[in-house]
Automatic annotation (TrEMBL), chain A:
Domain FeoB-type G: 3-165
PANTHER family: FE(2+) TRANSPORTER FEOB (PTHR43185:SF1), FERROUS IRON TRANSPORT PROTEIN B (PTHR43185)
Protein's organism: Bacillus badius
Protein name stated in the entry: Ferrous iron transport protein B
Record-linked Pfam families: FeoB_Cyto, FeoB_N
NCBIfam families the record matches: small_GTP (TIGR00231)
Matching CDD domains: FeoB
Length: 241, 465
């Protein structure tokens, strides 16, 4: 069985890279994302007999493809379709960080929300009810401090449950005004006509309504690749794995 | 559609176009505000505070970045920094000048006592010692006040708020909001600021930031501006009123630099570098009480000392060279005067003179040495002035026919002219293009020449000088 692909997403300065280093140790290598001057870090680790490949996505505040960083992070989640995406949030400014989590939840179901820097939040007297948050978001929520190695086991076990489908997330989906919703469902139907369940059609419909030309270009590329008989899922993750 | 058609790029294009025509401007706003509202609502339920959250930063930000108060506060902060610098620098500058004057007298006596030849006394005392003395007297005190005060503001967390306020203006000029950050960096050092433009991803917007960075005065040019403003711009005012006027003139210079930055960005983004500005996120750090002495000490040592060292290292040999060139005669004029006379007609047309242009040309390696070279060149003209007082320095300038227009135009030229050698090298390294490096040289120089020519013509035409 091939390795399980996991992506790490999050705002800058949330301790995402600390978590990446803690999980992968020395088993990592870096390079550039194809065609971009954005650094790609990838590493591997083992848990309960499973081989995991972890990809550290660039730290971003949003995924609207405003910049090369955001495009890389978004394209990976949508087109490479990792088996799980861990969204790392800063416990001390949860509100701002949640914006990114909601954007990821619109793209994929297989999400774990990881509230990092929980020790700093404690110091500042911030208390987060993670059970309530998990219920709201519809995906597992883990509190942790990557720096002090608190909550790592819980995160790994949750990851194990998620990929073995012992948990079935039903992520929170934004609802928009009636008018936008009507437009979304119109376009969504046509996108589903093109791609079936391969790609998140509701999310694509929303992006097309927002006039996201970068995504259109990426979709065309995706179609061309499919024609050549390679699907995104079969693309080699890296030369070594 | 319930069947799955084979996906083709053409079909996709159709759908994308349909989506675009169904789209409206409010969609992006609604998407974003929806996400923000949901985050807020969720947080209100999920996050609790044992003690009330520190709302101080938010309250302050509401004032510092307010649409009404943001700019007035920014301007008054800037004015306050200048006022403190000018008011505080006068006394120590004069004290330093008279100390150097006394030492020069002693040195002269010493040289006479050992029967040193006149040329040695000329090179070492009248050239090297006097030149370096003037540079330290006029440059050290303002820098020792300006840099620490600026560093305090920076460490308090105020500068990101300035960037936030400026963002709107840069967007309107078709540039990237981050350009306000690289511009702020330019107040320290343009060469470093060129490197900092790497934070702008779009090549078009990055080029705008590179080409216009020079229009804010850097460490090397602050002393020139502060010195000339305090010597010439507050004539007829005394005491606090004079300092206030001087500070206002300096503020005007900075504002003018920013206006030129925005105008040039706007013109370029409509012509050679067309395009739409992209978004970015700016994280405002919390306000922190700076470690006062730590900051003051670090700024004094790192910045003031560094700039002074650079100025003295160049000024010392330059003093000797200038003295030598001013005392070697070809025909009946010195080599230096030949060069200066060559430049003089052009300098006069720009409201300055040949000495000033020569100083700017020889000052290409670093802006710090423009004033030292100018003082040296004037002093070498046989005007045997004792180093006593800053008013003596003004007298030197006046003897060479300076008016307020000369000072104003030298300030304008210093603000607008070509970047220093280090900055140009960095621009070439970053753009890898001789064409754009040349543009980075040519655009500011053309503007500097045009502006000074214009002010000189207007002032003379209206009979103000």
């Amino acid at each position: 069985m091939s390795a399980i692909k996991v992506a790490l997403a999050g705002n800058p300065n949330t301790g995402k890279s600390t978590l990446f280093n803690t999980l992968t140790g020395l088993k990592q290598h870096t390079g550039n994302w194809p065609g971009k001057t954005v650094i790609r870090a990838e590493g591997s680790f083992e848990h309960k007999g499973e081989e995991y490949v972890l990809v550290d996505l660039p730290g971003t505040y949003s995924l609207f493809s405003n910049s090369a960083d955001e495009e890389v992070a978004r394209d990976y989640i949508v087109f490479e379709q990792p088996d799980a995406t861990i969204v790392v949030l800063d416990a001390t400014s949860l509100e701002r960080n949640l914006n990114l989590a909601f954007q990821v939840l619109e793209m994929t179901d297989r999400v774990i929300v990881c509230i990092n820097l929980i020790d700093e939040a404690d110091k500042k007297g911030i208390v987060i009810d993670e059970k309530k948050l998990a219920a709201k978001l519809g995906v597992p929520v883990v509190k942790m401090s990557a720096r002090n190695k608190i909550g790592i086991d819980l995160l790994l076990n949750t990851l194990d449950h998620l990929v073995k489908e012992k948990i079935n997330p039903s992520p929170y989906r934004m609802t928009y005004s009636e008018e936008i919703e009507r437009k979304i469902s119109q376009i969504e139907a046509q996108i589903t006509g093109l791609f079936g369940a391969e790609l998140p059609s509701r999310w694509i419909a929303l992006r097309l309504l927002d006039g996201d030309d970068a995504l259109v270009a990426k979709l065309k590329e995706y179609i061309d690749k499919k024609k050549d008989g390679v699907t995104a899922n079969e693309l080699p993750i890296s030369a070594n794995s | 559609m319930s069947f799955q058609s084979a996906p083709t790029p053409r079909l996709l294009e159709q759908i994308a176009n349909e989506a675009k025509s169904a789209s409206s401007h409010e969609i992006r706003d609604q998407i974003v505000s929806n996400i923000y509202q949901t985050s807020r609502a969720v947080c209100e339920e999920v996050v609790h505070y044992k003690q009330p959250p520190q709302a101080q930063t938010e309250k302050l930000d509401r004032i510092f970045t307010s649409r009404i108060w943001g700019f007035p506060i920014m301007l008054s902060m800037l004015g306050m920094v200048f006022y403190l610098t000018i008011a505080g620098a006068n006394v120590p500058s004069s004290m330093l000048a008279s100390a150097f004057g006394w030492a020069e007298g002693e040195l002269t006596l010493l040289f006479q006592a050992i029967n040193a030849p006149a040329w040695l006394h000329g090179v070492l005392v009248l050239g090297l010692f006097r030149g370096t003395g003037w540079v330290i007297s006029v440059m050290l005190p303002p820098m020792a006040i300006f840099f620490p005060v600026f560093a305090l503001l920076e460490n308090y967390g105020y500068l990101p708020r300035v960037a936030f306020n400026m963002d709107r203006l840069f967007k309107k000029a078709g540039a990237h909001g981050k350009q306000s950050l690289t511009m702020a960096m330019g107040f320290g050092c343009n060469a470093a600021a060129i490197m900092s433009t790497r934070i702008i991803e779009s090549p078009r917007e990055r080029m705008l930031a590179i080409l216009t960075n020079n229009f804010v005065p850097c460490n090397g040019r602050w002393p020139t501006l502060i010195l000339l403003a305090s010597l010439f711009m507050a004539v007829g005012y005394t005491g606090a009123a004079g300092t206030l006027v001087t500070a206002a003139v300096l503020m005007g210079m900075v504002l003018f630099g920013i206006i030129v930055t925005l105008t040039v960005s706007w013109v370029l983004s409509k012509t050679a570098l067309k395009g739409v500005p992209t978004h970015y996120t700016l994280e405002l750090p919390p306000f922190r009480k700076p470690k006062f002495w730590n900051t003051v000490l670090r700024a004094s040592l790192d910045k003031a000392w560094y700039v002074l060292k650079r100025a003295v290292i160049v000024a010392a040999p330059a003093s000797i060279l200038t003295w030598v060139f001013a005392n070697i005669y070809v025909g009946d004029t010195s080599i230096l005067m030949h060069f200066i006379q060559l430049l003089d007609p052009f300098g006069q047309a720009l409201g300055m003179d040949g000495f000033i242009l020569a100083a700017f040309i020889l000052g290409l390696p670093a802006n710090e040495i423009v004033i030292p070279i100018l003082i040296m060149a004037y002093l070498s003209q046989g005007a045997m002035l004792e180093l006593d007082d800053l008013s003596e320095l003004k007298q030197v300038f006046l003897n060479h026919g300076w008016t307020w227009l000369t000072a104003l135009n030298m300030m304008l030229f210093s603000l607008l002219h070509y970047p220093c050698g280090t900055t140009l090298v960095n621009i070439y390294k970053e753009t890898k293009s001789t064409k754009w490096t040349f543009m980075a040289f040519a655009i500011p120089t053309a503007i500097a020449i045009a502006v000074t020519f214009l002010t000189a013509s207007i002032a003379r035409g209206l009979g103000w000088v």
